[in-house]
Amino acid sequence: MEPEQVFSALRTVLKGEVRIREPMRNHTSFRIGGPADIFIVPYNLDDLRVAVSWLREHHIDFIVIGNGTNLLVSDNGIRGAVIKLGGTLNEIEIGEEGQDGRERGRCASIMAGAGALLPHVARRAAEHGLAGLEFAGGIPGSVGGATVMNAGAYGCSMQDVVAGVLILREDGTLMNLDAANLGFRNRGTKLLDDGTSIVISVRLCLVKEDRDQIIERTERLLAERASKQPLSSPSAGCVFKNPSGGGAGRYIDAAGLKGLRIGDAQVSPKHANFIINLGNAKASDVMALMEEVRLRVFERFGVVLEPEIRVIGG
């Protein structure tokens, strides 16, 4: 089906937003990316189920994104559809204290829609005197994406606080998965490998502590992050996973690559594991720069850097 036909059909069956040839640079923190044929923001869970069912029935490829903070979208854009979790899929509910069921004893839970921004969830947790998400206050992704990618900082990651998730399976049914069944690993989970299940909400297990102390820790980590990372420039966060034996940024810095530039893509002079968009960078510039960095680090140290950002489209 042509994009115009898909657009017309989906507008009649969905309550949420449907757009045609939507520039993906408007939906990624890199501010890079060509147009998606169809762009959908479901109004609620039922809307999401209808959208997914319709697209699968008509054999139209689609990809689900959160806040677009870990993505590099091709200059050619994305054929098929992009579903961005929003609407009522970003609600945050503070639960009661109870037994966690893992090995952390008693905890207070937060149920967050997959589209909720992780810094917003961390702030709500701090305001309610719930500790454990301080590390996430500066991670700009959605809670669903952060869980799937097992995002982390300062020695902590989502696997430390996630108690379980609700997913929409390929057959349209919902399933609750406990943390033990998510296969957490360094910057990944089984859900990342699956590619067919969609995270609807995430249940977090946090610990009651003094509210002011939690806020102080959160603010301190935010200040530290701002002092070390190029937060004022468009980027997708850390580009490469940290290899065993040292941080990726240290290898890149030691290879003398800070400031290296291809087009408007540049290795950040502030943090070597960031590539920043100086204004009009193309995805091809970023990919060429990533490959040059990988080559030089391997030639100098024999270390193979693996991408942490996700490259999509084409």
> Beta-strand percentage?
25-35%
Q: How far from one another are the termini? A: 18 Å
Tell me the domain tally: 3
CATH class of the largest domain: Alpha Beta
CATH fold-level label of the largest domain: Uridine Diphospho-n-acetylenolpyruvylglucosamine Reductase, domain 3
Number of strands: 18
Mean pLDDT: 93
Largest sheet: 6 strands, antiparallel
| Principal-axis shape | globular
Instruction: Report the C-alpha radius of gyration, rounded.
Output: 20 Å
Q: Which stretches of 5+ consecutive residues score pLDDT under 50? A: none
Tally of DSSP helical segments: 8
Order of helices and strands: HEEHEEEEEHEHEEEEHEHEHEEEHE
Q: What class would the helix/strand composition place it in?
A: alpha+beta
Give a quick rundown of the structure.
This protein has helices at residues 3-13, 45-57, 118-127, 143-149, 190-194, 211-228, 248-254, 283-301; strands at 17-23, 35-41, 62-65, 71-73, 78-84, 92-99, 106-113, 130-131, 152-153, 156-157, 162-168, 174-178, 198-208, 235-238, 261-262, 265-267, 274-277, 310-312. The protein has 314 residues and is of the alpha+beta class. The protein has three domains: 3-88, Uridine Diphospho-n-acetylenolpyruvylglucosamine Reductase, domain 2, CATH 3.30.43; 91-226, Uridine Diphospho-n-acetylenolpyruvylglucosamine Reductase, domain 3, CATH 3.30.465.10; 230-312, Alpha-Beta Complex (Uridine Diphospho-n-acetylenolpyruvylglucosamine Reductase, domain 1), CATH 3.90.78.
